[in-house]
Design goal:
Helices cover about 55% and strands about 15% of the residues. It has helices at about 5-15, 20-30, 45-60, 60-80, 85, 95-110, 140-155, and strands at about 120, 130-135, 160-165, 175-180. A four-stranded antiparallel β-sheet has the order 1-2-4-3, covered by helices on one side. Bound molecules: protoporphyrin IX containing FE. Protoporphyrin IX containing FE binds near residues 82, 100, 115 and 148. InterPro entries: H-NOX_domain_sf, Heme_NO-bd, NO_sig/Golgi_transp_ligand-bd.
């Protein structure tokens, strides 16, 4: 994954927990993340090791950290560094989600060696839809949940997110049922 991913993990940790914790995480992971370059691609293993070490050092589970990271990615990294790209993604949460299958095509213009996730939308109703998430990478379901929560905050649209199929449990891919007509959990 591109260095911007590991940089954003560092930003989340430093902003909320301080530099000392971030240094402890880099040491535990055996990754000198501060030396990675944002627009260079690196093996995925580096990001996974940092996430695992962050959960250990901060005393939370990996999924909880990935949810926080997803929210941070949209609300901080996305808004601060890719504001125009993010805002052009849709005029409402529903619009953004329907257009999400094409979103990383535009990201690829900035990062040509991107290995992006893929999405499709089905069962699109007035207040809900199903978002299908396809990836070659394991263990990122909670990151997706955090990203969706971040988008919900960004568009000031409360959502209920239900995982109705899970690749980790043998399904073909993850499917999120997203309902924006109901009060937020
Ligand atoms: C500011 C906007 C965004 C940018 C610049 C961006 C960029 C990226 C980059 C660079 C990666 C790493 C992939 C690689 O390096 O090969 C990535 C991965 C990913 N992105 Fe985005 N992204 C953005 C928004 C979103 C949104 C809104 C979603 C979904 C709601 C999303 C879902 C994901 C997921 C799930 C991955 C993990 C990779 C995988 O599943 O295989 N991204 N993105």
């Amino acid at each position: 994954m591109y260095g911007i991913v590991t940089k954003a993990i560092g930003d989340l940790v430093v902003t909320n927990h301080g530099v000392a914790q971030w240094e402890a995480i880099q040491e535990k992971a055996g990754v000198e993340a501060d030396f990675l370059v944002g627009n260079e691609p690196y093996p995925d293993d580096l990001a996974y090791r940092l996430v695992g070490a962050a959960a250990e050092v901060l005393g939370c589970d990996v999924d909880a950290f990935l949810i926080r990271f997803g929210e941070h990615w949209v609300l901080k990294t996305g808004m601060e560094s890719y504001g125009a790209l993010l805002k052009s993604g849709g005029v409402s949460l529903a619009d953004f989600l329907v257009k999400l299958p094409n979103f990383h095509t535009r990201v690829s213009l900035l990062y040509p060696q991107l290995t992006p996730p893929e999405f499709s939308c089905t069962d699109i109703g007035a207040h809900s839809m199903r978002l299908h998430y396809f990836t070659q990478r394991p263990g990122l379901t909670s990151f997706m949940i955090g990203l969706l929560r971040g988008l919900s905050t960004l568009y000031e649209t409360p959502v209920r997110i239900t995982l109705v199929a899970q690749k980790a449990k043998g399904d073909d891919h993850d499917i999120f049922e997203i309902d924006w007509g109901a009060p937020k959990e």
